[in-house]
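Request from the bench team (R.T.):
"We need a structural guess for the complex before ordering more pyridoxal-5'-phosphate. Sequence and SMILES attached. Just send the tokens back."

Command: build protein-pyridoxal-5'-phosphate structure.
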Amino acid sequence: MTVETADPASTRPPNAYWSPVVHRLTPYVPGEQPKLSHLVKLNTNENPYGPSPKVLDAIRAELSDALRLYPDPNAERLKQAIADYHAVAPSQVFVGNGSDEVLALAFQALLHHPAPLLFPDITYSFYPVYCGLYGIDFVTVPLAEDFTLQVADYARPNGGIIFANPNAPTGRLLPLADIAWLLERNRDSVVVVDEAYIDFGGDTAIALVDRYPNLLVVQTLSKARSLAGLRVGLAVGHTGLIEALERVKNSFNSYPLDRLAIAGAVAAFEDREHFEHTRRAVIASRVELVAALEQLGFEVLPSAANFVFARHPARNAAALAAALRERHVIVRHFRQPRIEQFLRITVGHPDQNAALLAALAEILAEG
Ligand SMILES: *Cc1c(COP(=O)(O)O)cnc(C)c1O
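Reply to R.T.: structure attached below.
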């Protein structure tokens, strides 16, 4: 679990009115969103470039008296735009209020079975939180020493498999051929691939959904499309899986996406040029950042994401993170076995990366 800023709510004593499940929850702690604006914020993998101007125009155009009306509960325009982009049918697309919501619905709709759900020991720390919320039994499968996912380790009875690709917080990419290998051997349960970072360096498994009716690919507009503040996520899979998500969604909230989010997200998929341009800029900055960190003596895992995962052989990661913070640079540190000596650093704007590197050089020179 991540320990960063203590959630004040979790330190309050239990209340007699709580439903029993609330006592058992260990909520996810998101990366800090500091109120100070002068910070170099490299802790939550936001895109340093703004969203497409066409997204902003589309949202402005939606600002009218029509806000008194409910949005389209099925967000059909958006499903069509996503279907066009990924060359699938709209009935193979599900949308939700951020991919965190899509994932939560997938855990409930598709991953809750008597056999345990499998996921890597080092991965997105929200997965065990959903298991706690829904009472899903799970087993973590250790990544290899080099933090690669070995698909053969998942060839065992299970009630579902989920992993992030590229993985978080390591940034390592699992090749599509390995995912196909896993799907060939795992026909009886759902495999969810969480592709929050896929556009920064991998090929999407959406190419496999027509071949495997048990594959669900989850993506977000928060990272490569610079819309973390709009809260839009999606899933692509066989219509049978999408139908399960719709059934749970329509038993919970009919309108997860508001009118502004639908309009902005449609425009985001239509403006391919802005998307290509900004994601290439982030990838180029990542290559430079990795080289500069290695120059400073860091060991950096190969990253296909918009962040890098790095450790210094001679420096304590928690101390480095604290020293960076004193210099107004915030990165993410996880107090978790196997990775406590790593820092997860978001690839920022070139100016932010330069500020990070200057601060690190200063800290390392101080000894
Ligand atoms: C950021 C992230 C998400 C959540 O994205 P939202 O759409 O903003 O909710 C999901 N999975 C992983 C691995 C992420 O890093």
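Two things stood out. The chain has two domains: 31-50+273-365, 53-270. The longest helix spans residues 272-295.
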